[in-house]
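Bumping with the actual sequence this time:
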Amino acid sequence: MIHYDTHKQTAPICPNSNPTTLTLHLDTKPSNILLNSDCHVKVCDFGLCRSVAEVAGPAPVLTDYVATRWYRAPEILLGSTKYTRGVDMWAVGAILGEMLNGKPIFPGTSTMNQIERIVELTDKPSVEDLEAIQSPYASTMLDSLPPLKIKALNEVFPLASAEAKDLLKTCFFFNPDSRSSAEECLRHIYVTEFHSEEDEPVYPHGPLKLPIDDNIKLTHNQYRERLYQEITNRRRDSRKQELQRQKKQNATGQPV
């Protein structure tokens, strides 16, 4: 159930049905997954969050720090700045693996050691996978790895069910475009007993854009003023919408 709720919380961030609404968390890890005594899950710490509309824009400035190393997707480790929902889905898979084994599954001590541990599980990527990563450094970094013993999922997760290992596999494709979306994971047989489409809404209102451009750095006071202004604007817009709803209801005599 905890892993189902993690996917459910990630779905509004990484939708598959409408990728233009995509928001990237970019720092998904256990300490940013909040859990209460009723096993209700919330994702927190959106300090590195980026809108796909922003990332897809002209020459976006993307931070060099993306995700804690143990949960960092291979494309980021290999120097790619093509950030997709696959970054978050890789991290969700790493969290599931940690829950299954009771310890981190990629506890790398450095960037290269992290890549080694990942390749031991995924094997070296194909030419097509490297092209999808879009990193000028990927081939050189992978060629510098020592000979590695490739491990099967059954060896790494000996106590996990077949369904759990299948879900892990969908999150651990080297090619980020091949990884499952959160919505697809919610329909996976491993969490099917918790799946309910009515309780898994998808944001329907077009592209999400962060109100403050992260490419422009402001002072603390300026950020505070912008935040207060956004709250004021939201409240004013909400009041307008409510007035329009009431007028329409009064005109038609039907609840809106």
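The tokens above came from a reply further down the thread. The domain at 2-199 is CATH 1.10.510.10 (Transferase(Phosphotransferase); domain 1).
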